[in-house]
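check this:
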Amino acid sequence: MIDKIFSRLNDWRNLPAYQLERRADIFFAVYLEKIFKEYFPEDLEDIIPEFPVRIGTIYPDPELAPEPVPERNINRSDKIDYCVFTKSGKIYLVELKTDNASISKEQLIYYYASIKKGFKEIINGIFQLCDTTHSRAKYAYLLNKLMNLGAVKKIDNKPVATNKYCFYEKPVFIKPTKKEGDPSGIEIIDFDRIIEIISKENDDVSKQFVESLKEWKNPV
C-alpha cells in the first residue's frame, strides 16, 4: 500500500492543478525532528502545522501591507506551514515548497514581519482570533497546546503570553534545491540534505520517501 501512495504522488504531481505539498506535507512533518536535530541541531518540543498569524497583528496599518488589507480582514489569519518549538526556546517558522519556483517577495515580507513582531505579539493576535473565530473548539485546542508548551499561562483565569519562546531570526524554507537568486536572509534545507538524513532509516516508508524525494527534486 505504501508503494501505491508514493506512486500516486509521483504521478499526480505532474498534473496542472495538483498541489503536491498539501498531500506530502505529513511525510515531511514526520521527519522534521530528525531534520532539525542534524541540520541546526535542535531538540524539538512540538510542531504545530498551519499556525495562524493574525493579519491585523503583523500589519497594524493595513494600507502598508504588501497588498492593502480590507478592514473586514484584519481578524483573519495567514498560516505558517509549520511552527517548530524547540527545547532551547527558539521557534522556527518553516515553509514547505515541493517545487522550485521563486520565493515571493510578499511571502518573505509576511515571515519577516511575524519574526519582527515577536512571538508574544503573535500570541496576543491569536487571543484576538479566539474572540472572533467561528472555529472556537479548534482555537481552544490550539490554546491548550500552547499552554502545555508553557507559551501561554492563565492569570486570573485569563490566558497570557509568556516569555518562554522567541523566534529564530530567519524563516526556514524546505525546497527541492538551492538555486541562484534565492534570498540570502533565509535558511534553506534542500531535498538532498533531507535525503541524506532520512537514508539512515531502514523502514519501508523512509525508503519510499527517499526515492520519491529524488524524483521530486527535479522540476516538472
Summary: The chain is about 45% helix and 20% strand. The first strand starts at residue 44 and ends at 54.
